[in-house]
Amino acid sequence: MANETFDAVRIGIVSVSDRASTGVYEDKGLPALRDWLTRALKNPITFEARLIPDEKERISQALVELVDAGCSLVLTTGGTGPARRDVTPEATLAVADKEMPGFGEQMRQISLKFVPTAILSRQVVVIRGESLIINLPGQPKSIQETLQGLPDTPGIFAAVPYCIDLIGGPYLETDDAVCRAFRPKSAVHPPK
């Protein structure tokens, strides 16, 4: 409806890559996150973007800064594999109040439909204060698949709006053509 209004939301997006952060190659993570979120959410979005190297302290610092700046949702991409420099999960857990393991389990289930090496992925999802922090895979195609899901497998973003409701964040409205959010009937708000 033309007269509907949606809560404004501030979203942090972080691409973790030694090479992209030094200009060795173009970062594809931030554009992929921005594109998918812009299509999936009806809310007006203000993005806070960071492109940083695979350094635990820098990652943790960026996450804290984004949460403190009012980002109710922070998504990271990259740095979740088993390589020595992959420290995004450790940096994320270091700033967490609560861990939400179901999200990481679902991301690996989706990725396993494509590659057996999905079991090497270590994405974590945590709550810090009133913010949800999600580690996503590094490839744009994998970002979309894990957020949006597949015809036979729900993506993780279906649970994000209700999770953010429960931790005190803004009411997120999704475009059902991209990703249908799930809320119990008692938690659904009528259009404004």
What can you tell me about this protein's structure?
This protein is of the alpha/beta class and 192 residues long. The protein has helices at 18-21, 29-40, 56-68, 88-93, 101-112, 140-148, 160-166; strands at residues 9-16, 45-52, 73-77, 98-99, 125-128, 131-136, 149-150, 153-154. The protein has one domain: MoaB/Mog-like domain (Molybdenum Cofactor Biosythetic Enzyme, Chain A, 3-Layer(aba) Sandwich), CATH 3.40.980. A hairpin with a 2-residue loop joins strand 5 and strand 6. Helix 2 runs parallel beside helix 6 and helix 5 packs across helix 6. The radius of gyration is 16 Å and the shape is globular. The mean pLDDT is 93.
Would you spell out the secondary-structure blueprint of this structure?
Elements: E1 9-16, H1 18-21, H2 29-40, E2 45-52, H3 56-68, E3 73-77, H4 88-93, E4 98-99, H5 101-112, E5 125-128, E6 131-136, H6 140-148, E7 149-150, E8 153-154, H7 160-166
Parallel strand pairs: 1-2, 1-3, 3-6
Antiparallel strand pairs: 4-5, 5-6, 7-8
